[in-house]
Amino acid sequence: MFRLPTYDVVLWYWVRPGTTGYRGKFINAAEAYPSEATEYQGMQDMHWGTEKEAEAKAILERLKPFIFDPNVVLLRLSSTRVDFEPITCKDERPSKRTSTLGHA
Question: What structural domains does the chain harbor?
Answer without folding.
Answer: 7-100 (3.30.70)
